[in-house]
Amino acid sequence: MTSAPAIELRSFTELDAVRADLLNVYAEVRAPLLHLANYAVSSFGERLDRHGAEPGFQAVLAYEGAQPVGYAYGNTIEDGDRYWQRTTPPPPEKYTDRAALALKEIGVSPGWRGTGIARRTHDTLLADRNEPYVTLMVNEAAGDGKVHALYRSWGYEDIGLSQPSPASPRLTVMIRSTT
Question: What's the CA gap between 43 and 55, in Å, rounded?
């Protein structure tokens, strides 16, 4: 596919309304990595449940008809949040003195990659947020560095490193303004 005109974006603030769709599309997006403990659907489900219970949770899913084909979700984080505690070096105060949006996951099903769905779900997630900054973590090896480069092209800049769990790879922490 080269375009995505039939895609509908839907926003959710309650995890229960969209949990099954998120798990299903995650399994498609991460299929080559599901054998790794950190990427297993069960591990993702545990993280998703934790994130969905945190303040400011919002998910944006892209649908072709009833089929989810992409997603982005995040939640609000405050100074002292474990997200920031695991970031090395500690982030500058200008990023933590007010709440920020942590983009926890973004993904697009293989058949829909390159159609702009990732950017559309990302931008829709940010559209009505009150936080001045959005932060994310990226594995620099993802897509042979293409994912990291993509985020840079969206205005994100590197501010540190993090390893969220022992099973997780070391990730680059990135940030940008929500506007």
Answer: 21
List, in sequence order, every beta strand (DSSP E) within 18-112: 58-64, 67-77, 100-108
Q: What pTM value is reported for the model? A: 0.91
What region does 91 belong to: left with phi over 0, alpha with psi -120 to 50, or beta? Answer: beta
Calpha distance 127→88 (Å, rounded): 29
Maximum pairwise Cα distance, the chain: 44
**Residue 141, C-beta contacts closer than 8 angstroms, at least 6 positions apart:** 169
pLDDT, one tens digit per residue, over 61-86 is 999 999 999 999 999 999 999 999 99
Burial of residue 18 (number of CB atoms within 10 Å: 0-12, 13-18, 19+): buried
